[in-house]
Amino acid sequence: MRAGRIVAAIAVLTAILVAAPVVSIVALAIQPAPDVWQHLLAYVLPLAIRDTALLLGGVGTLALLVGAGTAWLMSLHDFRGRQMLIWLMPLPLAIPTYLAAYVYVDLFEPLGLVHRTLAIWFPPGDAVFALPNLRSLPGAIFVIGIVLYPYVYLSARAMFQFQSAEFAEAARTLGASRWNVFWRVSLPMARPALAVGVALVSLETLNDIGASEYLGVRTLTVSVFTTWLNRGSLAGAAQLSCFMLAIVAGLIAMERYGRRNAAIEFSAESPRLIPRTMLVGIKGQAAFAACLLPVLLGFFVPLLFLMRESFRRGLLANVDMSLWRDAFNSVAFAGLATLIALLLGFTTILACRWRPTALRLIAMNVSQTGYALPGLVLALGLLTPVLAIDNGLNTLAEWMGRSLPGLILVGSGAAVVVAYVIRFLAVPTGFIKAGFERIPLDYDDSARAAGAGQTASMRLIHLPLLRPAMLGAVIVVFVDCLKELPATLLLRPLNVETLATSIYQFASRGSFEEGALAALLIVAASIGPVAWLTRFSDLPSGPA
Q: How far lies 499's CA from each of 239, 481, 502, in Å?
């Protein structure tokens, strides 16, 4: 029982930790900031809301079209090259949005690689006019959407693969064409997965600051950043952050609405899956090209550009020592945050497993909300509690007659680790929750009947069976921490850089190519985990 109370206390404290930034933001937003707010209302907020809405709508639409279309082709059809595409389709997730923005702007700017290529066939002046302007809202929609579409692809493909053949066969017997079956049967049945995928894409788009700022789109995220740092108004930034939290709540509500009345029961007598249709000739080639194109644009173009710049500038032969220092900082922050998030996630779910009371269930649900917080809003919300703790430690040291320790949490990078833990705690919590759901409660009852306590059951039964889920959580959280830019940018200690922030600094100085090797390290670290997530993603086709 003592172990149960300790686990429950940790679960509740974890929920309080996740909720603290939101409470802090609301408290900051209550503070009056009339001068700043007048400026925001007149010049910032209308444009920021418009650009944010257009960006979210455009990126969500592009990701939905590309993700759902390719998922349908890959799940319900067979064609030459499909097995290779199974591994390639999710790889754009290895490219952070800010890296894609830096790469594409460098490629399409005047005198860039694309301009020099076009100049071979066209006069230089005509070649410039032929270049698209990526520093625009349409450019941001393309760059961000082509990188984030795998969120929709993975969720939609999982749903398409598990659809029973009986629904499609019933529609066929009524004379429906293949297109009508997709539009009126397969797509509505995949609606819950599509809602989840689009919601994830929208949350990632709202979290982005590097790509939006670099491409000249004045989103709410960028406005919070400039209001905080350029105008020095925490209250104004917090008030803008409340708008962002309202958008987050709206996105979550839309995702819930998209999954309404979505319970689908399959026949126990006919659990056959839909057989894949073989596409040959021009149809097979068109399907292969349609699936390969987003992979080329979202993954291979940025990857090849980074490799080209790394070799061309001699970055591999003359590795700067600062790169190893930044890589060490990235690994240290990400590794520590991953360990803490895994422990807290496991403890939170274990508390519900042992005794699913209302308080513990609420704590579990609250602990999973951190991923919905944009990194910039999370950093703003953490600033006040972290500084309050540091000031309290200094006051305590002064009262005890000891030397003042200074800003321990901010100066040591602990604030960055805390931000990572809060933002990505939902990942290990979700993975471990899914793992526990696969462990029958009969195992716990049998262990209890054999005289084993809760701690022994956890050590001998739960931990061994949860190893795959925990490994997956470790991989995903570690890579997400490596790629995280907004929270790291604002909470890192002075003169401390990570791989992500060093790339941002290079891009801000107009010399992104010098950071190509650092960017390549982030991409290389992300490829393996993305491929690992797809290792069991293909199911055998149902009988024709």
A: 31, 11, 5
Question: What is the tens place of the pLDDT at every residue in 38-69?
Answer: 777 777 788 888 999 999 999 999 999 999 89
Strands 277-278 and 77-78: parallel
Measured CA to CA, the distance from residue 45 to residue 30 in angstroms comes to: 18
Q: In angstroms, rounded to a whole number, what is the distance separating the alpha carbons of residues 473 and 430?
A: 9
Query: In whole angstroms, what is the distance from residue 351 CA to residue 265 CA?
Result: 31
Please, where are the H alpha helices in 400-462?
Answer: 408-412, 414-424, 426-437, 441-449, 454-457
Please name the residues in contact with 335: beta carbons below 8 A apart, sequence gap of 6 or more: 478
Average pLDDT of every residue of the chain: 81
Q: What value does the CA radius of gyration of the chain take, rounded to a whole number of Å?
A: 25
Provide the token pair at 520: 């390549």
Nearest to 251 by CA among 181, 197, 332, 172: 197
- Least confident range of 61-65, 155-159, 230-234: 230-234
Q: Which are the contacts of 406, defined by CB distance < 8 A and separation ≥ 6?
A: 390, 394
Taking the CA atoms of 353, 18, 221 and 501 in sequence, report the sign of the dihedral they define.
negative
Nearest to 479 by CA among 500, 505, 507: 500
Confidence category of residue 33, pLDDT binned at 50, 70, 90 = low
SS3 277: strand
Q: Which residue, 408, 431, 416, is CA-closest to 477?
A: 431
Q: How does pLDDT run across 178-222, given as a tens digit for each residue?
A: 666 666 666 677 777 788 788 889 888 988 888 898 898 988 888
**Are the beta carbons of 383 and 297 closer than 8 angstroms?**
no
**Could you tell me which of 300, 330, 329, 318 has the C-alpha nearest to residue 517?**
318
Give pTM, 2 decimals: 0.84
Structure tokens, 374: 């944009």
Long-range contacts of 224-231 (CB under 8 A, 24+ apart): 224/376, 224/377, 224/380, 225/376, 225/486, 225/490, 227/36, 227/40, 227/44, 228/380, 228/490, 231/36, 231/39
Tell me whether residue 223 is exposed, middle or buried, using C-beta atoms within 10 angstroms of its C-beta: 0 to 12, 13 to 18, 19 or more.
Answer: buried
Q: How far apart (Å, rounded) are the C-alpha atoms in residues 396 and 379?
A: 25
Q: How far apart are CA 222 and CA 228, in angstroms?
A: 10
Instruction: Report the distance separating Cα 472 and Cα 14, nearest Å.
Output: 21
Which is nearest to 488 in space by CA: 503, 500, 479?
A: 500
Task: Give the CA angle between residues 286, 289, 291 to the nearest 5°.
Answer: 110
Which amino acid is it at 33? A
CB 447 within 8 A of CB 368: no
CB 7 within 8 A of CB 354: yes
